[in-house]
Amino acid sequence: MAIDAAALTRALDWNGLDRIAEPLASTVRGAYESQGTVGQQVKDLVHGVWLGHPLHPVLTDIPVGAWTVALALDTVAADDPGMRRAARLAIGVGLLGAVGAAVTGLTDWVETGGRSRRLGLIHGLLNVAATGLMAASWLERGNGGRSAGVASAWAGYLVAAGSAYLGGELVFGRRIGVTHAAVEEPEEFSEVARSSDLAEGSMKRVRKDDVDALLVRQGGKVRALAHSCAHMGGPLSEGTLKDGSVVCPWHGSEFSLDDGRVLRGPATQPQPRFEVRERDGAVEIKATD
Ligand code: FES
Question: In the predicted model, what is the mean pLDDT of residues 107-129?
Answer without folding.
Answer: 95
